[in-house]
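Record type: monomer structure entry
Structure origin: computed from sequence
Chain ID: A
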Amino acid sequence: MVMAFSYSNIPATVRPIVVSEKRSSYNAPIELGDVQEPILSAPPEVRQIIERVLQAEKDKLYMKVPRNINDDILKIIKEEVQ
């Protein structure tokens, strides 16, 4: 694609050069099943921990400054291990 411009009666030709980063080699489409596979294949005890941690994180989303999420996660893990 060539664009022509003229500046004060002097024609100029501009050849646009596309400058971009390389495309990633991991350009494969992601399916929802691929993301959830580790959760679905986990043992029931681990799945319970994951579900409770996700729920705790969702409960904190509305907060402007979510606090003590690490303490909540630690408490969940301790409860499930005992």
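Annotation 1: The longest strand covers residues 3-7.
Annotation 2: The chain has three helices and two strands.
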